[in-house]
Design goal:
Elements lengths: L10 H5 L1 H14 L6 H6 L3
Length: 45
């Protein structure tokens, strides 16, 4: 039987989702003002 490992975020890790999603939204809205399309291409946007 293959080994099985389960991972889960702690409450602290889960709480990071809110500010990280806000940061992602900000980046997506401002990517054109932060260094051009080179940055967007690197991240697949």
């Amino acid at each position: 039987m293959p080994l099985h490992v389960e991972y889960a975020l702690t409450a602290l890790g889960k709480s990071a989702a809110v500010p990280l999603n806000l940061l992602r939204t900000w980046v997506e809205e401002n990517i054109d003002n932060t260094g051009g399309s080179e940055s967007a291409d690197r991240w697949g946007s």
